[in-house]
Amino acid sequence: DALIAVLNQDSLAGKSDADRETGLLTHVVAYSTDEGRVLAERIARLNQTCGIGLDVSVVFKQNINDDDGMFIHAGFRHTVMNVGSLPYADAEYHLPGDRPERVDLENLRRSTQLVLAAVLDLDRTGAS
């Protein structure tokens, strides 16, 4: 494989009701390996250099599970998970109240911009 990084996305605008009410634009980049940490910090810096305006947190995820875990277990150590909160703070996540109108579209737009900025940066400079 010629993969240089895995950028997993899930619930990019998933955040607490309090964050939703105050308009906080959250984004978490979680990692489980040293290589993932470097990638997560790089993504957080892109938020600043590109002026995207998210409140980005870089979080160590001890359990190698979720959708990103399968890539790490397969040997792709440059793997991160991009989510709106960790632990998941959306009170309605995967429940009957998990409806489209709960999605903060501005948060989703900016988080998508950040992930795309990371893809372009990785394409231009590589993983190292």
Strand order of the largest sheet: 1-4-2-3
Q: In angstroms, what separates the terminal alpha carbons?
A: 17 Å
Low-confidence stretches: none
User: Helix share of residues?
Assistant: 25-40%
Q: How many E-type strands?
A: 4
Strand content: 15-25%
Alpha plus pi helix count = 4
Q: Using only CA atoms, what is the Rg?
A: 14 Å
Question: Which overall shape is indicated by the principal axes computed on the Cα atoms?
Answer: globular
Average pLDDT score: 95
In this structure, how is the largest beta sheet organized?
Answer: 4 strands, mixed
N to C succession of SSEs: EHEHEHEH
Structural class: alpha/beta
Task: Please name the defining characteristics of this protein.
128 residues
Summarize the structure.
By secondary structure, this protein is an alpha/beta fold. The chain contains four helices and four strands, in the order E-H-E-H-E-H-E-H.
Explain what this protein looks like in three dimensions:
- By secondary structure, the chain is α/β, with parallel strands linked by helices.
- Helices cover 40% and strands 16% of the residues.
- Strands 1-4-2-3 form a four-stranded mixed β-sheet, with helices on both faces.
- Helix 2 links the parallel strand 2 and strand 3 (55-60).
- Helix 2 packs across helix 4 (105-125).
- The radius of gyration is 14 Å and the shape is globular.
Topology:
Elements: E1 6-9, H1 17-22, E2 26-31, H2 34-49, E3 55-60, H3 66-73, E4 79-83, H4 105-125
Parallel strand pairs: 1-4, 2-3
Antiparallel strand pairs: 2-4
Helix pairs in contact: 2-4
